[in-house]
Structures are given as structure tokens and as C-alpha cells.
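Marked as duplicate of an earlier ticket. Keeping the data here for the record.
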Amino acid sequence: MKRIALLLLITAVFASACTSTKWVRTTVAERHGFNVALEHYQEKGSVVPQHYDHPYEMEVSRLERLMGDLNYVEKGESEKPGPVFQAAEIERLAPVLAETLANADAGRRIRFTSFNQGKTWILSYPRKTEGVLFIEPSGRLNIAFNLINSRLRTSEINAIDPIYSSADPLKIKESDTPLSSLPSYAALHKFEAGGQAPMWVVADLERLKESVGTAAPPVIETKEKAAPAPVPKAETKEPPIEKAAPVQVPAGTLGENIKNKLQFLKELRDEGLISEEDYNLKKKELLDKIK
């Protein structure tokens, strides 16, 4: 009995030590298809300073350009480069990330999870991309991924209650979905001990700005030469997109929050992303919170 008690004590101490350091998250935006949070590092109950170059004002068009230029390959598949983010993901996520950067402090980085409907020749299935984003004092933007277009597990129902990966994206040294074909203004992070991080990209903000500024406007094809070109469309990416919701921590009532979750849960069921049984189970859990 004494030996068992000693083993239990050692296990408890070890578990406590493992959980004494962690990233603590505060959700700032949860919408259909994505979740954004600010997170700070905590060790033994104390916040550890990180010294990011936050807050940082960044034009949405530059962040859209970077997200649109990111490609990856999936080992074991065709291994042809494919986009990390779909166009719909960039449209809804980039404005929120830019707004969150403008409101973050020097001790917190941004955690994001983006969902999409991945497609093959025959089937379509839900996938998610997860990572962190922060600005270094040297003027470089970092995006490090935990997952890139990974299939959702059966236990993952929606973006409002995300299941975050436990691995630190800044420590990942091997991946089945490495980044590929990076733009000229970006490069993979290099570890001090040698080697490159497969899913951690670092972008030079000045060169990114130049890349966006020198980009040629889209060519609009018309069947008749006399037809005037719709010039305003060439400028739609320059001003900030107004679709983004405020990224302040929601101050609504518990009832409003649960109502949003129930509505999103119903959408997932109607789209066939979750079963009727999963829908009823999660619905019951949410309704129990307001009893």
C-alpha cells in the first residue's frame, strides 16, 4: 500500500509540473468557419513576458496577400503544391486577424483555427488549419502552423468550441504537410540548432508591402472592345474589409452566446457535417447551461 501511495504521489507531482506552464487563451472572435483567440504564456501562475511588436497596425490587403501566397504539399498524395487557405477562408479570417493584431499587447500572440470543406474528385469533408501569428520586434511577421488542412476528428463539432492541438507550433520539426513554394518576401524559420521548421513561415513586412504595392491590377476580360472596364473592382482589396466583426471579447449575455452556438450547430447538421445523434447530444449540453 505504501508503494502504491508513493507512486500516486509521484504521478500527481509530475502531472502538476507538466501543467504549471501553459498558453492561456482568451477568445476574441468565434464565427461560422473560424475561431480567433489571444494567448499569453503562463508559468507557475505567473505571466511570462514575450516582447512581441504588438499592437501592430497592418493593412488587410497585405495579410490577404501573404495568406494567398502560402502553399503546402501533402506527403503521400500527389505532392503538388496546393493553397493553405481557400479564398473564402481568407475573406473572412484576414480582417479579423488584422484587427486582433491592432488590439494585441506585447505579451500575447494570436491563435487561430480556420475550417473549410476539403474536396477530392468524389468526396468532400471538413478540414481545419490551426496556427499562431505574431510580429517580431525586427519587423517580421511569423505564422507557425500546428495543422494544415487536417481532417476533423469525429469529436470536433464546430469552431465555437475548438479542440486545440497540444503541440507548440514553434517546436514542430517534422510534418506530413510542409509549406512549399514560398513567395520571395518569405522564408521558413531556421532553428538555432540547425534545420528548418516545416510549417513556420517568416515574412519581411517591408518586402511584403512592396509586393502588394507593385502588384498589377487584375485584368478584366470583355467580349466587346468598346465595353468599359469595371475599374472600381481593381481597388476593392485596398480599403479594409468591413465584413469583419469586432474582435473585442464578447460581452453579451450567456443566453446570446448559447443561441449563437445552437444556430451554428444546426447549420452543421443541415449541411451533413454532423449526425443527428451528435446534434441532439451537443444541443442538450448547451441547453443544460441555462437551466
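See parent ticket for discussion. Residues 96 and 277 are 33 Å apart (CA to CA).
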